[in-house]
Amino acid sequence: MENHVVESQTMSWLLASAIEPMLIADGDGTVILANASVEKLFGYGSGELHRTPLAALFPNLGSGLDMHAAAHAPGLQELAARRKDGGEFSAGAHFSPLKTRWGLPLVLATIQDLTSRKQAQQAFLDSEARMRAIVDTAVDAIITIDQGGAIERMNPAAIRLFGYAEHEALGRNVSMLMPPPYRELHDGFLQRYLATGEKRIIGTGREVMGQRKDGSCFPMDLTVAEMSIGARRMFTGMVRDISERKRAQAEVQRLLAELTRANEELTNFAYVVSHDLKAPLRGINSLASWIVTDHADQLGQQGRQQLQQLSVRVTRMGALIDGILEYSRVRRGNEVSERVDVVALIREIIDSLAPPAHIAIHVDPGLPALTADRTRIQQLFQNLIANAIQYSDKPQGEIRVQARPGDSGPVYSVADNGIGIESRHFERIFQLFQTLAPEGHGTGTGVGLALVRKIVDMYGGQVCVESTPGVGSTFSFTLPRAARDAQNDAGAR
User: Fold this and answer.
1) Which has the higher per-residue pLDDT, 394 or 62?
2) Cα–Cα distances in Å, from 452 out to 26, 306, 382, 432, 435?
3) b (16+ CB within 10 A) / e for 154-182
4) Cα dihedral sign for 299, 301, 304, 305?
5) Most-buried pick from 209, 217, 284, 418 (CB within 10 A)?
6) Which residues have C-beta within 8 Å of that of residue 131, sequence separation ≥ 6?
């Protein structure tokens, strides 16, 4: 009897010293010893588990016979467990039969709370399901291969793109989806990366050729990402068919080439027109002048007036030809950029235009400098200031050239107090050969404001007009590229 007590005390001491939840049950499946860890796990107080049926902790375990059968089953068993408060959780139990000196059939149970593991497993399964749903519904083709290049998975988009059923491709080398010479180079790239870490495609995007099951080839964007699952290295390739994009790019290049040829032809045509038409126009003007000088008495007043109108129209035709020539010359790529002192340039323009004495032109001395083609900037301001002078109808005309800060650089403006423009004409005035010149305000060619817009467009800007008939007009414009280049130049100095 004394030895039995000692043996019982020894087992109690061993259980008490164990960190893991442990208990000992007798042959009837009743708990006879339990350590503090198992009491805490099941929510019992100290000593409360004594004489508790094991079935109360593991409802599915059943009788003591079931417990002894479990004791002879190998490994960790997953069981539904129940706490004192009725709450259930997943537990892992390892049952080991014990032999005592007195032949009592006992079972030692080592218990683990599997809640965290089950939650992690479920989270992993949920994540895998979400990822599979994303991959399966992705527009791009997605292919997973192992480190030997063998295909492990193709999503539906890849199956549609390459024409292979998944079972036809699984286990085969991914190079089957590539035409020569990419097919022969693929394994070398992969092995070189695995051996040296040298990246050719891994982690970067690249344009390559793909080959369908029917043998047809197509251009594709390929991006490859590496991932590790345990000790395994795997690679996921995302593929996009760029056939349409390549066709569109080729079409754009073709259209650009045609446009370039058309622009060159237009420029050549403008030069031809300038040379071939202006010479006879000068002859007509000279001949009209000679007739008036040599035969004034014979012509009479009406004849002299008609010849004078002829000269005016010939002069206007010459100005129109000059405008067309200038318009054709304005295109990006042929300008010579330099730093332009806008204030000094406008002073020169005013001197050349020689405005009437009753028109005052005020120039903001703080106008920002630009880095651009000086001739184009001169044409821009000269056309706007000349228009303001031409359409002045007040006894005291005023023109103001100013600038204010804007989101894309300075906003320049030329404002006047002239005749103004009706809002319905705002877009029309910037079109080639469109003029709204009323009687008594000259005969414009309709090229000036079209030239202004073309120059502003060339420098990435916008031009707009605000006007009230009888009050005046304000033309505002930006030149972002010229302003940005000016800032860069200033920073470099």
Assistant:
1) 394
2) 103, 34, 9, 11, 14
3) bbebbbebbebeeeebeeebbbbbbbeeb
4) negative
5) 418
6) none
Cβ neighbors of 448 (< 8 A, separation 6 or more) are: 323, 383, 386, 387
Pairing of strands 105-113, 22-25: antiparallel
Q: In angstroms, rounded to a whole number, what is the distance separating the alpha carbons of residues 35 and 108? A: 12
Tokens of 480: 């972002």
pLDDT value at 226 more than 50: yes
φ/ψ bin of 157: left (φ > 0), alpha (ψ from -120 to 50), beta (otherwise): alpha
- In degrees, rounded to 5, the angle at the alpha carbon of residue 185 between the alpha carbons of residues 183 and 187 is 85
Residues 6+ positions from 138 with CB-CB distance below 8 Å: 155, 157
Which residue type does 397 have? G
**pLDDT at residue 81 is higher than 50:** yes
Q: Look at residue 296 and give its three-state secondary structure.
A: helix
pLDDT computed for residue 370 by the predictor: 92
Calculate mean pLDDT across residues 264-274: 70
On the question of pLDDT at 5 being above 50, the answer is: no
Contact, 49 vs 36, CB < 8 A?
A: no
pTM of the model: 0.47
Which H helix or E strand runs over 238?
A: strand 232-241
Residue 482 Cα to chain centre, angstroms? 26
As given in the structure block, the two tokens for residue 473 are 């007009």
Show the tokens assigned to 475: 């033309």
pLDDT at 54: 86
Q: Shortest CA distance to 357 belongs to which of 389, 385, 382?
A: 389
d(CA 221, CA 337): 39
Average pLDDT taken over every residue of the chain: 81
Residues whose CB falls within 8 Å of the CB of residue 102, separated by 6 or more in sequence, listed in order: 3, 4, 7
Rounded to whole angstroms, what are the CA distances from 229 to 195, 234, 267, 490?
19, 8, 65, 55
Instruction: Read off the pLDDT of residues 271-311 as tens digits, 9 standing for 90 and up.
Output: 676 666 667 777 777 877 778 777 767 777 777 777 777 87
CB atoms within 10 A of CB 1: 6
Nearest to 326 by CA among 274, 249, 390, 387: 274
Backbone angles phi, psi at 117, to 5 degrees: -65, -40
- 218: nearest Cα among 165, 160, 270, 261: 160
Dihedral of alpha carbons 65, 67, 72, 78, sign: positive
For residue 265, the model assigns a pLDDT of 72
Give SS3 for 98. Answer: strand
Say if residue 454's pLDDT is above 70.
yes
In this structure, what token pair is assigned to residue 39? 């009491």
